[in-house]
Amino acid sequence: MPAEFANAIQSKQQFKATCRATPRPRAAQRWIREPHRHASPRAWRALSRSRSMKLADYSQMFVSYHEGWDQLVAAHPDRKAVFYKLVLPLSMIPAFMILYAGTMYGSYYAPLLSEGGWLLLAGVFLAAELGTVTLMGWVIHQLALRQAVDNSYDGGYLLAAVAAVPMWLSSLTLFVPNLTFNIVCAVLGLLAACALVYHGVPTMAGHERRDDVRDMTYLVMWIGAGSWAILSILILLPMLGR
Predict the structure, then answer these.
(1) How far apart are CA 220 and CA 227, in angstroms?
(2) How many CB atoms lie within 10 A of CB 58?
(3) Which of 1, 187, 158 is nearest to 68 (CA)?
(4) What single string gives the DSSP state of each residue in 22-36?
(5) Cα separation of 222 and 230, whole Å?
(6) Which one, of 133, 197, 118, 112, lies nearest residue 163 by Cα?
(7) Where are the transmembrane segments (predicted)?
């Protein structure tokens, strides 16, 4: 009986060794490396839907601590990638919109401001935007260190950049030459940015219910709101004399 048991084990081991030594067909190898190219149309549609739902999760970042934020934390992009792929392109939108408003509706917004003045205003605003995101990233990082939260400067910079997106997009309302409408949309963008900070700081800190983290969240919101309010004043100053 022991001899038969030993023979059975040896046969099983030889079978496994043979399977490992047998090369896979090329089609199988391609399936392992690139399964999406060989999936059925039904499976491919299901995969596409799952990816689109992941992208749709980012719209929940304003009201959720996890939807969208978890994917963002898992990706963990470095500061350089965030700057070139998010901060720099989107910060160009307000600068371009200021130039557009000055060119197309300059007589409405600031009739005393020349084209060179609008160009200078756009350049100053662009530099102030980039500096504000950098400053807010540093502030978030320093506050996180004080609260003994494990957070790198890259994480703080990422959160500052994500929170600034509604403010950048709100500048698109300058396509409509209505100062009241522009101000209302800018305020809504600021509120949306505060919502992102409110849900983003506790999530990226990893402590949603700690009182000290909640206090840090409110402090970041006040500092960020004040910084972007100063940026908005830079645009409004030339319009006060209209």
Answers:
(1) 10
(2) 14
(3) 158
(4) SPPPHHHHHHHH-GG
(5) 12
(6) 197
(7) 86-106, 118-140, 152-169, 175-198, 219-240
Phi, psi of 150 (to 5 degrees): -75, 95
Q: What is the CA radius of gyration of the chain?
A: 27
**Which amino acid is located at 79 in the chain?**
R
Alpha-carbon span 234 to 231, nearest angstrom: 5
CB 92 within 8 A of CB 129: no
pLDDT over 90 (residue 44):
no
- The phi, psi pair for 64, rounded to 5°, reads -125, 150
Comparing 4-13, 23-32, 156-165, the range with the smallest average pLDDT is 23-32
SS (H, E, C) the chain: CHHHHHHHHHHHHHHHHHHHHCCCCHHHHHHHHCHHHCCCHHHHHHHHHHHHHHHHHHHHHHCCCCCCHHHHHHHCCCHHHHHHHHHHHHHHHHHHHHHHHHHHHHHHHCCCCCHHHHHHHHHHHHHHHHHHHHHHHHHHHHHHHHCCCCCCHHHHHHHHHHHHHHHHHHHHHHHCCCHHHHHHHHHHHHHHHHHHHHHHHHHHHCCCCCHHHHHHHHHHHHHHHHHHHHHHHHHHHHHCCC
- Residue 175 sits at the vertex; the CA angle it makes with 173 and 179, to the nearest 5 degrees, is 60
pLDDT score of 240? 63
